[in-house]
Amino acid sequence: MRAKEFVTERRDRMYQYIRSIVPTWPEYIVKDWLYANQAKPFGRQSNITPADRSFETLRTFIPELLADIGLTVDTKWQLVPNMKFTMDMWEPKTKQRLIARAGGKPTELVPSTMAPNMKDAERHATQASLAKQQGGIRKEPVIIIKTPQGYELLEGWHRTIQHFAAYPDGYTGPAYVAVSQGQHGVAEGANWDDEEDALVEALEEWMMMQYDDQTIKTILSSPEAEPYKDPPGGVQWLYRAIVPRDREFNSIKASGPVIAFATEMAGAITFIESLETSDDWVIIRKPFNPADFVLDFTDMYEAFVEPDNDPMSRYEVEHEVWMKAVPAYTKSNKQEIVYTSKEHYGDNDWRKDDYKPKSTAKSDLRRPEDEPAIMQNPGKAYHYAKDVIKGRWPEAEPYIIQGAKSIIQSGKSMSDSIGISILVGYARDVIGGRWPEAEPVIMKNPEYAYQYARDVIEGRWPEAEPYIRQDPVWALFYAQKVIGGRWPEAEPEIMKNPQSAYQYARDVIQGRWPEAEPVIMKFPSRWAEYTKLFNLDTPAQNMAENFADGKNPGRKGLAKRSGVNTKASVSSLRKTAKNSSGEKQRMAHWLANMKAGRAKAKK
Question: Global pTM?
Answer without folding.
Answer: 0.42
